[in-house]
Write a structure and sequence with these properties.
Helix content is about 45%, strand content about 10%. It has twelve helices and six strands. Strands 3-2-1-4-5-6 form a six-stranded parallel β-sheet, sandwiched between helices. Bound molecules: magnesium ion (MG). Magnesium ion binds next to loops.
């Protein structure tokens, strides 16, 4: 694994090691960045594999679900040039107008006790630039992007177990001290089994914002239940369930916002990873899936 050995960082048992996802966890990627990345990925697939747009879109979402990232799917199945792909699909003339996040994020992260590591399926150049725009680059002792997740098997990405194990070993951190903060439930689910703690950040998700609106109409309890039903591990179009509910109630135009949110993004969701079927999975008393220790709407809640 191409993660440099820790320098000054020594193993500190018991001290939390925060593994932060980037897109839709630390900033609102679905606002403007994911739509552009998805179009660029589809264009790349059309050109390189000779597919039409619908076929390329279908392949993109299928590989995201099956392999964790489109990159890993394209590498394993088609042997594409990874560097060219990453450069092309994450190319932005300017990211500054596209990045949005919650107020006070940098201060919140600086005050959070423990070690902080960025752990993202996105490429390093993009991740570093976004962190710079968010003013939080120095908060993180390490940035682990998709290039750093490679091992002798080849390209890896979340939620690969071997990659996580090697990452924590390189960080000299124990699973029990690690806390994964993520928007993608399939990553949380896969990694919760390894013994780390999981925090589901929903503040930048389409569905979550609608839950806030739903709560005003149906009450908090009903809104939470609807959010629980919108389990992307169970159904690739899970958010459509929530949208459908809204449409039925004539609360909002059918499908607005949700269709994209359900299938969008370079590291979105892996419904196929859930062999048990999402609706059959155990849920805690709160209605939260058992693999989620905490559900937050803001990093301030950590
Ligand atoms: Mg994410």
């Amino acid at each position: 694994m191409k993660i440099s050995k820790p320098g000054r960082v020594r193993r500190q048992p018991g001290r939390p090691v925060w593994l932060f996802d980037l897109d839709n966890t630390l900033h609102h990627a679905s606002y403007a960045i994911f739509p552009r990345i998805n179009i660029a990925m589809t264009d790349f697939i059309m050109r390189e594999l000779g597919l039409d747009r619908a076929e390329a879109d279908a392949l993109r979402t299928d590989y995201t679900r099956r392999y964790g990232t489109v990159l890993v799917g394209l590498m394993r199945r088609h042997g594409i040039d990874a560097a060219a792909f990453l450069d092309e699909v994450h190319h932005f003339d300017s990211l500054s107008g596209l990045v949005r996040t919650e107020r006070g994020l940098a201060r919140t992260l600086r005050r959070l006790p423990g070690r902080k590591v960025l752990f993202t399926n996105a490429p390093l150049t993009y991740a570093t630039e976004v962190l710079g725009l968010l003013g939080i680059r120095k908060v993180f002792e390490r940035v682990i992007a998709v290039e750093q997740m490679r091992d002798r098997r080849g390209w890896q990405s979340k939620p690969d177990h071997g990659m996580l194990r090697r990452t924590l070993r390189a960080l000299q951190a124990r699973h029990r001290d690690a806390v994964l903060v993520e928007d993608t439930r399939s990553h949380l689910k896969a990694y919760r089994r390894t013994g780390l703690k999981t925090v589901w950040m929903v503040g930048h998700l389409h569905g979550a914002r609608r839950v806030e609106e739903l709560a005003n109409v149906f009450g908090a309890q009903r809104a939470e239940r609807l959010a629980g039903d919108a389990d992307p591990n169970a159904n690739p179009d899970a958010d459509l369930g929530l949208a459908g509910e809204l449409a039925q109630r004539q609360f909002e135009a059918p499908g607005e916002g949700f269709a994209e949110g359900a299938t969008m993004g370079p590291d979105v969701r892996h419904p196929s990873a859930d062999a048990s079927g999402g609706h059959a999975q155990r849920r805690g008393e709160s209605g939260r899936p058992h693999y989620i220790d905490r559900r937050i709407r803001s990093i301030k809640s950590l």
